[in-house]
Design a protein that fits this description.
By secondary structure, the protein is mainly alpha-helical. It is built from ten helices and no strands.
Length: 209
Amino acid sequence: MLEFLGQYIIQLIQSTGYAGIFVLMALESALIPIPSEITMPFSGFLASKGELSFVLIVIVGTVANLAGSIFAYYIGYLLEETILLGLIRKYGKLILLSEHDYHKAEHWFRKYGDKIIFITRLLPGIRTVISLPAGVFRMDIKKFVIYTTVGCLIWSIFLTYVGFTLGENWTSIERYFRKFEFLIVGVFILALAFYVEKHLNLRGKLMKK
């Protein structure tokens, strides 16, 4: 099925260029199961051939992801959680979304707070679903937009760069992208831990004064 879908993704990008990238990436973030792991690397491959601009691919992909994420956010924001779960139970199979996926995203959001929006943008599977609980819990829309934009920007740069670098071998990304994905998340977690520790130490010094 993924191979079949991939053929249509490739054909759409080849025929429509940036418009196709925008539609595909927006739909992905709006909970439609269209893999960005095909859209962006293939676009990066076209950039390596000079057919598209690397920078424009990244910008379009990021903006499209943000647009789709905001749409999903307001689905969660406007619907009661019981209604949302009822819709997932009834129609979730059509978009490969289960109650388990939602509850996992909800658990992460409850446990780690707003910043999990950024972290999950680098994790396949949960990166799009997280918008729903963000809306349900009425996350500040400004923070949502900032964290989503930064996370999606990194994701778009990474996938486009891999496709650009691998060239005609862009389809081999599946072997490598998970390693880089965990590396990115690991670096962020270390940076976050350093920030928290530094902030607490500074706060402790101020309280002593």
